[in-house]
Amino acid sequence: MRLSREPDHARPDSGADAVITLSRGDARSVYAVQVKSSMTLTALAHGRYMGTDPLLVIGDRITRRSAEAFREANIQFVDAAGNAFVAFDGVFVDVRGRVDPVAHDRDNRSLVAGVQEPNLFSRSRAQVIMALLAWPELIGGQRREIAAVAGTSLGQTHDVLKHLTAAGYLSGSSKKPARFGELLDLWTAAYSTGLGPRLHLARFSGDPGRPMTTEQPAYLSGESADGVDIARPATLTVYLSSWDPKLAIVNRWSTNPDRVPNVFVRRKFWVSPRPSDEDVTAGPQNAPWPLIYADLMAAGDPRLTEVAKTWRARFARPDWS
């Protein structure tokens, strides 16, 4: 593979550190390069890349967790140890598991001596971001209301809004959303290893097509959500405020270790600003649409990935560029 650097004026004001062309045979692609001392989604979110060329992130070392998140978000990268994810015009490079001791030591020293950027996608911050993605009308409103919807403290909510503004995702005195499509991509990529596992309550095997019986509000997600174009869902994902062991008995869910789990119970952390969404008598309802999208993407099933793209197109606002 060959690399050539484009003139520095090739992409002015895009936020790229350099513009390069990668080529192999007749295949070629122009990339905007960002150099990151910390190769994480949070560092990338603070990068303010405004160009249209695909992004190539370069740095000393990427952790296995960050590498998986980058791949899920289709963000290409190369680190000093030789780990890489690059794909263009039939060229595909995917190198994993390499460790550079020198880079590792340098990274450890930087953690002690330097100031780390806050993790924009930690559990509580990810909850606030989900609330803003699901109900953008909250933006510019009272922070106390945002905190109540997201299930976070007022201080945590203030902190997230501050960092979103600094990263360029909220702009102007009215705090209008900017680049929320990009924010959704990064939030979704971080969900499967961040917020998602922290919401786990229980898992079982059962019949996903069997109507669920519950005395508390239940919120469906993933391929079992209402309106997702799946004729026969293979899994059931449901969010509940609390877990009652009787639910497994009533719904005939099994913990048999010989059967693959396909019923996933997770903790509901949000309170919808729309009263109809919290109607106890309405029966199972859908979880907020970004959660459904994230659960579909986290499944790692190409079939569900295509369904997720359709789902996203239904709900994401056209101005989320």
Question: How is this structure best described in words?
Answer:
The protein is α/β, with parallel strands linked by helices and 321 residues long. It folds into three domains: 2-113, no CATH class; 123-191, Orthogonal Bundle (Arc Repressor Mutant, subunit A), CATH 1.10.10.10; 199-315, no CATH class. Helices cover 33% and strands 20% of the residues. It has eleven helices and 14 strands. Strands 1-2-3-4-5-6-7 form a seven-stranded mixed beta sheet, with helices on one face. The longest helix is centred in the C-terminal third of the chain and has 14 residues, at 302-315. The protein starts with a strand and ends in a 6-residue tail after the last helix. The model is unreliable at 106-116 (pLDDT under 50). This is Transcriptional regulator with AbiEi antitoxin domain of type IV toxin-antitoxin system.
Overall structural class, as computed from helix and strand content, comes to alpha/beta
For the CA atoms, what is the radius of gyration?
21 Å
Strand tally is 14
The run of helices and strands is EEEHEHEEEHHHHEEHHEEEHEEHH
- Mean pLDDT equals 85
Biggest sheet overview: 7 strands, mixed
Classify the helix fraction into a percent range: 25-40%
> What is the domain tally?
3
Number of helices, counting only DSSP H or I runs of 4 residues or more: 11
What are the low-pLDDT stretches, counting only 5+ consecutive residues below 50? 106-116
Q: Trace the largest sheet across and list its strands.
A: 1-2-3-4-5-6-7
Pfam families: AbiEi_2
Organism: Actinoplanes italicus
InterPro entries: AbiEi_2 (IPR019238)
Protein name: Transcriptional regulator with AbiEi antitoxin domain of type IV toxin-antitoxin system
